[in-house]
Design brief:
elongated
């Protein structure tokens, strides 16, 4: 329940036009999340791009941008954005998980495995680690 309220507050704050700097960027990220949930990926892309101009130091902004780019099939953008997220927060399991997802989508098994293994190592016993381990299993040899 918290997310819809936060998104609603963000939309109100954006409409009021009173936010600047990092607060404006964070509100745009919240709005972009709501747009993704509503399956309006093009509008979410616009909001994330605007957020990056004021919240570009936030690794989450780059992570969200990379994830959206991957979902939209823009692998060059996804690779560039996840590189920015990794620069800012290499010890974030979510960033490593997405780096693995992008590498796998790009056909780079070695990089995908390394990133997913790092995600599992960084955040053991979390949903992120479980997702990374499940992703790693796709490379297991078939059982006889």
């Amino acid at each position: 329940m918290t997310r819809p309220r936060r998104a609603s507050r963000s939309i109100s704050a954006l409409t009021a036009g009173t936010l600047t700097g990092l607060q404006l960027g964070e509100a745009r990220l919240d709005h972009a999340r709501a747009l993704v949930a509503a399956d309006d990926l093009a509008s979410a892309r616009t909001d994330i791009d605007l957020a990056l101009t004021t919240a570009g130091d936030d690794p989450l902004a780059w992570l969200l941008s990379a994830t959206l780019a991957r979902r939209m099939g823009n692998l060059p953008r996804a690779r560039g954005d996840i590189a920015e997220a990794l620069k800012r927060s290499p010890d974030d399991a979510s960033v490593q998980l997405e780096a693995g997802n992008i590498a796998a989508r790009d056909g780079d098994e070695t990089r995908a495995r390394a990133a997913w293994a790092e995600a599992a190592r960084l955040a053991p016993d979390t949903p992120t680690a479980r997702n990374a381990i499940a992703a790693l299993r796709q490379f297991d040899p078939p059982k006889p």
